[in-house]
Amino acid sequence: MPADDTVVITRMDIPSDFQDILRRHLPFSDAGELGEDDDLSDLGLDSMGLVALMADIEDSYDVELPDEFVAETTFATVGSLWRAVLALPAEWQDARLAG
Amino acid sequence: MSSADALLAAEARMRSAGPLLAGRLPELLDNGHRDRPAVTFRDRTVSYRELSGMVSAAAAGLCRLGVRPGERVAVYLDKRIETVAVLFAVSAAGAVLVPVNPVARPRQLAYVVEDCSAAVLVTTPERLATVDATGAALPSLRHVVVLGDPSRSTRRDVTTWDELCRPGPPRPEPPGPAADEIAAIFYTSGSTGGPKGVVVTHGNLLTGAWSVAGYLEHTAEDVVLAVLPLSFDAGFSQLTTAFAVGAHVVLVNYLLPREVVRLCERHAVTALTCVPPLWWQLAEQAWPPAATRHLRYFASTGGRMPAPVLDRLRAVFPAAAPYLMYGLTEAFRSTYLDPAQVDRRPESIGRAIPGAEVLVVRPDGSPCAPGEPGELVHRGPLVALGYWNDPERTRQRFRPYPPGGELAVWSGDTVYRDAEGYLYFVGRADDMIKTSGYRVSPSEIEDAAYASGLVGEAVAFGVPDDVLGQHIVLAVAGRGGQPCDTDRLAATLRRDLPAYQVPRRLLGLAGLPRSGNGKFDRAALSLQVAGGA
């Protein structure tokens, strides 16, 4: 059981459009479902792939990623990256849902 | 042991051992104090005792799998503690180590496995699944060892790391001194044809480790942050030059420059070697004093360090000595510039490293005068045996010097020597692209383009780039006079090539220019692009 001060994050579904973006930059991901605990490094994310992935996220969602987005904790797992994207400013979320 | 003592000890070892050091690669681990840290990855550290135990267990496991002395074991892994253990275990089992770049794609992995007919592949479940999905047969492989869950693979020959390392009966020790025996094959791009496997002996690796650990003044107190991939000679030597003196290696799979800063602070890193594009990124970071306080040196290999980056790094690391180095995989490393000379001759690649002999010669083999450009030729105990299974390309690069004498590496690089013996790089004779610290052959990119079935003509070349050294441009024409679908081609190349080999720019043309002899005119294309076309 998690300790009391641990933030409990319930299992999340990773949207398929986000999975499609990710797969383009994860050379060792297959066509199967990406799970939130999947390790981005195990799936082959490297420093060059990371730069291309960020550009792809910005283009796909028409959003500008802030400096604080670029942290090791962001790029640890599929789930950590998706949570960081969800934490982006609210107007972007509206645009994505509308789009 | 003081640093001067370390240097003297290294030189004495090399001299007393004659041209080649006796012994095998894994014996390097005996130099570490048993209870001192050997390797750290993320939150886990193993001592020299623990690492030696892992190496023995994995070596015994490889022998149980039936790996015979001299057989090739390909290691296709990112950095982690088990990677270090298996790299040394292959040697301890008497087999030949073939490290494969962890960013390689199935296409490159298959080339290496087939070229050296590897008997065993050690990899991750994700990489294995990706290789399996291509349908590559890889008939030489008898076993695959996976670090992780084997259930995703349908192969029957899969062994897990835990099974490999399970306790078993002790195995007979492999026979003693092995200086002339093959220890490893490092694959590197060739200017023609596919990548070449540079065959190095135990003596090459041990001599190189002691030589470099000597001039970098490594001691047991050092903490080496291993940023470079372990799959090429300079990256692998992050391990050997640290283990030679019982130092501590911290592993990182490079993703973000900020992580390097954080690790330098967390582990009080004293020793850091990178390639110029990495230094460029690191120079732009904010470095708190706690991250730079312990750094004793910073070293650069794999291309020319731009002067503004060097200046910035010297300001960031005021107490650290800068080492600029030059090497060829065929002879591990040839030269380094003494840090005391950096202000006086920042453009120099320095002089021969301890134990190596570096000459500048004319085409007829006679020595060049000071200031006269000639080919860099490297002689001595670091010279590799040649290219695996490739006598023709071996004869081109490994030729006697002097005529009738021992085999030397003819580098293909043009250099000159000043009156005081310092060397300066002038240029290369071939079309190799130097990008991100890698040598990339245009033919590797062009072959991948042709394999896509989307192009009729393809020429890859390098264009000067401040950060990368060069970046790759691929000029293509479609098949049968049709325009090429460059979007589809770009997606295919991203799938089939490691990121550092993917062209920055695709240039779709109606046809590619040819020179008088009918060959593609690379020079004209590269001028056209560099000129802002």
Strand order of the largest sheet of chain B: 2-1-11-10-12-13-14-15-16
How many distinct beta strands of chain B? 27
Q: What global shape of chain A is seen?
A: globular
Helical stretch count of chain B? 16
How big a fraction of the residues of chain B is strand?
15-25%
**Termini gap of chain A:** 40 Å
Helix share bin of chain A? 40-55%
Query: How many H/I helical runs of chain A?
Result: 4
Share of β-strand residues of chain A: under 5%
The secondary-structure class of chain B comes to alpha/beta
Mind telling me the C-alpha Rg of chain B?
23 Å
- Morphology call of chain B: globular
Largest sheet of chain A: none
Please give the largest β-sheet of chain B: 9 strands, mixed
Helix content of chain B: 25-40%
Compressed to H and E, one letter per element, the order of chain A equals HHHH
- Based on secondary structure, the structural category of chain A is mainly alpha
Number of strands of chain A: 0
Uncertain segments of chain A are none
Task: Report the average pLDDT across residues of chain B.
Answer: 91
Average of the residue pLDDT scores of chain A? 84
Structure description:
Chain A is an all-alpha fold and 99 residues long. Chain A contains 4 helices and no strands. The mean pLDDT of chain A is 84. Chain B is of the alpha/beta class. In chain B, strand 23 (433-435) and strand 24 form a beta hairpin. In chain B, helix 1 runs antiparallel to helix 7 (202-215) and helix 10 crosses helix 12. The chains are: A mainly alpha (99), B alpha/beta (533). The interface between A and B is medium-sized, with 20 and 22 residues.
